[in-house]
Design a protein that fits this description.
The complex is a heterodimer.
Chain A lengths: L8 H6 L16 H11 L4 E5 L3 H6 L11 E3 L5 H17 L9 E7 H6 L2 H10 L4 E6 L39 H6 L5 E5 L4 H13 L4 E6 L3 H4 L6 H10 L6 E4 L3 E4 L1 H4 L7 H5 L14 H21 L4
Parallel strand pairs in A: 1-2, 1-3, 3-4, 4-6, 5-6
Antiparallel strand pairs in A: 5-7, 7-8
Helix pairs in contact in A: 2-8, 4-6
Chain B lengths: L3 E6 H11 L4 E4 L6 H13 L3 E4 L3 H13 L4 E5 L1 H17 L3 E9 L5 E5 L4 H6 L8 E3 L4 H18 L2 E7 H5 L1 E6 L59 H16 L2 H4 L2 E4 L6 E5 L2 H15 L4 E6 L1 E3 L3 H10 L2 E6 L5 H9 L4 E5 L8 H12 L2
Classes of the chains: A alpha/beta, B alpha/beta.
């Protein structure tokens, strides 16, 4: 028996929370909301494997854990491999008649550092092996847990403590890794980008990720007031804004080839200018200095190009 | 640059020491409690015309350092326990290819993720034995912000001189404490650089040692054609499975350090001359021991300290001498006993007492004083 996903508000309120209040995430952090939305999509017994990161540290400080699911913390680079081990063992036990539950979902969670960078090899291995795991990356754009260092998920123009902005540097200069597409290139059955503002879209996609056979990947955008120097009350707005400016468009990729733009992104007449997004955060403050006008322009062009390419892939003219 | 004075933390002092030593390349990855070194290097490297690069993990960080060092640039990385664990294969590669590099390990609580923001000294044996095979490395153990600077300079000098990876093994307390730091005028610093290959490229043998057991180094991009490999190699650098080559190479990699141990080892003798009870300590516990010993002296107990500023190569001769001078030795370290076993092997049959504490708070002065009193009453 699988439980339905809670898509309507009244069902969401009835669904038991998988993360209790009292966890120690920072004020305004979107990650706990992302986890709660994930909980709305669950269909039954679930095991969570999580890499080192903000969410791991702050939700499980001794002697408490905020998780109401079986949960294992692993090293920084290997949630996908640990999850593979879990699912293999469950399969073996089921074959031997030692697993009473009809069904179990295995979810691996990592931040952008643990996913884009150090854990990338393990994820690629999991995808190649075809293990039936949902990997979710909550992407807050830097190594926020160790004090805001740049990652492969950091946007160009973003200032971090290892991509300083100053007289000669506009912050990070490299592009963000196109992770969802890299994952999809493994011919992964299901890949989706989500944000916590568009919660129904989030829950629907997460449920699809669970139901699809084989690996699935959810790329969740997760505002971080502490690292971004943004207002703690604005995180959900920023999640929406990132979609509207085209930095985190919402889409799905089926079997690595079939792209589908999701409603909120599809309904945009045009992208809002990146300035609207940058001006909300201290980490982009330097971009408004006259010396970075050209750099800013090049970033806007980059995002415009990416958006047009994505639209084409999704069959939108 | 003239003398400068800073009030800063050990991590930053170590980064400044590296810059003063001429380090121009830092390859790193964030990890508590060593991240400040990377952050500081990200700011400072561009100012001195060097390069800071953040990699996707620690394996990439240290192997990039190996690559950079082979071009002739003094190179380093900094990390902590879990990061060192990932770097261990590359430590062996650096030993085998005789690559000068410096690895600063700001030791945190372990095993595994342990206590990232708490200090410990649990990585002493890992530094020596972590990679597979028989080899020697050098490991220095600073106990103050000034020593984080001084010993990072020294680490570069030793790694250049002996073509070997050198660890700066500092516990988190030393890494994060803030103290006065005097950065000497660059004229007053002794800076060494590796011995480079000379002579006709046609006759050049990249791994043929001189009498000091150290082969002159050819650099990538120089006129010398060579081959560097982690496989057992002959003087030409070519891989071989011959037993005699393996025996000679491994013996030399060990002996180039062991035969020079007296030149490498740095110790401080504190109130030891007439001591009957000696405390052996390094890093933060040695600061507690210093206070405890002063108080013990005031109470009429003849106590002293042998402070290890080098743990590898291990100062076994100094410990054997110490054992003949004193009646009891106390080893105080922030682990379950690692240097303790080395002291035991070197200083038997003098009684050795372990004060082990594998946790964030080091042995406090009064705890060491209590131990000294207890031993004194035996």
């Amino acid at each position: 028996m699988t439980e339905p996903a809670a898509l309507k508000l009244k069902d969401m309120l009835k669904k038991p929370e998988i993360l209790t209040s009292g966890h120690r995430m920072c004020a305004g952090c979107a990650a706990p909301t992302i986890v709660k939305l994930m909980g709305m999509a669950l269909r039954g017994p679930t095991i969570v494997c999580e890499v080192t990161g903000c969410l791991e540290v702050a939700t499980t400080i001794y002697p408490y854990t905020a998780w109401k699911l079986p949960w294992i913390h692993v090293a920084f680079e290997n949630a996908a491999a640990v999850a593979s081990g879990v699912i293999e063992a469950v399969d073996v036990m089921r074959e031997k008649g030692r697993w009473s539950k009809e069904h179990v979902d295995v979810i691996a969670i990592g931040g952008d550092g643990g996913t884009f960078d150090i854990g990338f090899g393990a994820i690629s291995g999991m995808l190649e092996r075809g293990h039936d795991i949902v990997y979710m990356c909550y992407d807050n754009g830097a190594y926020q847990n160790t004090g805001i260092q740049r990652s492969g998920g950091t946007f160009p123009g973003q200032e971090t403590t290892t991509s300083w902005a100053g007289k000669v540097s506009p912050g990070k200069e490299q592009r963000k890794k196109p992770l969802a597409e890299i994952v999809a290139a493994h011919r992964t059955p299901y890949v989706a980008t989500v944000n916590p503002y568009h919660h129904r879209d989030f829950i629907t996609k997460f449920r699809k990720a669970l139901e699809v056979e084989g690996p699935a990947f959810i790329h969740a955008f997760s505002p971080c007031p502490r690292g971004w120097r943004s207002q703690t009350g604005k995180s959900m707005e920023l999640a929406k804004l990132a979609m509207e400016v085209g930095l985190h468009p919402l889409y799905e990729i089926f079997n690595g080839t079939e792209y589908k733009m999701s409603g909120p992104s599809r309904r945009l007449k045009e992208l809002r200018p990146l300035d609207d997004y940058w001006k909300t955060q201290g980490q982009f403050k330097h971009l408004f200095k006259p010396e970075w006008a050209d750099f800013k322009k090049s970033l806007q062009e980059q995002v415009n190009d990416d958006w047009e390419i994505l639209k084409k892939k999704c069959g939108i003219e | 640059m003239p003398e400068r004075i800073m009030f800063t933390m050990g991590d930053i002092a170590s980064a400044e020491g590296a810059l003063s030593a001429g380090c121009k390349y830092f390859g790193g990855y964030p990890i508590t409690p060593a991240t400040e070194i990377a952050e500081w290097m990200a700011l400072r490297m561009p100012e001195v015309g060097g390069s800071f690069v953040q990699y996707e993990d620690e394996i990439a960080s240290i192997t990039s350092v190996i690559g950079a060092s082979w071009t002739g640039v003094k190179s380093m990385t900094a990390t902590s326990g879990p990061g060192v664990s990932l770097m261990l294969e590359a430590i062996g590669l650096a030993v085998m290819t005789e690559t000068p590099l410096v690895l600063v390990n700001i030791m945190r609580g372990g095993p595994s993720t342990g206590q990232p923001t708490r200090g410990q000294q649990g990585d002493v044996m890992q530094a020596k034995w972590g990679s597979h095979g028989d080899y020697q490395i050098i490991a220095l153990t600073p106990a103050s912000v000034q020593e984080m600077f001084d010993q990072t300079v020294q680490a570069f000098n030793l790694s250049e001189r002996y073509r070997v990876p050198v660890f700066v093994l500092a516990d988190e307390t030393v890494g994060h404490m803030r103290e006065r730091l005097v950065i000497p005028d660059e004229k007053d610093l002794k800076i060494e650089y590796r011995k480079l290959a000379t002579g006709d490229p046609a006759d050049f043998l990249p791994f043929k040692p001189d009498d000091d057991l150290i082969p002159p180094m050819a650099l990538l991009g120089s006129k010398y054609q060579f081959y560097a490999t982690g496989l057992t190699h002959d003087y030409r650098g070519y891989p071989t499975d011959k037993e005699d080559v393996q025996l000679e190479l491994v013996a030399r990699l060990n002996n180039k350090i062991l035969h020079n141990a007296d030149k490498i080892i740095d110790l401080e003798r504190f109130m030891l001359d007439d001591a009957e009870i000696a405390v052996v300590a390094y890093g933060t516990p040695s600061r507690s021991a210093r206070k405890a010993i002063k108080e013990a002296r005031e109470a009429g107990i003849k106590a002293g300290m042998l402070r290890l500023k080098t743990v590898w190569p291990f100062p076994e001769d100094a410990l054997a001498d110490l054992a003949s001078e004193v009646k009891h030795i106390i080893v105080a370290e922030q682990n379950f006993g690692q240097v303790y076993y080395m002291v035991k092997a070197a200083a038997a049959p003098t009684p050795i007492h372990l004060m082990a504490k594998p946790a964030g708070m080091p042995q406090l002065p009064h705890e060491i004083l209590d131990k000294i009193r207890e031993i004194d009453s035996l």
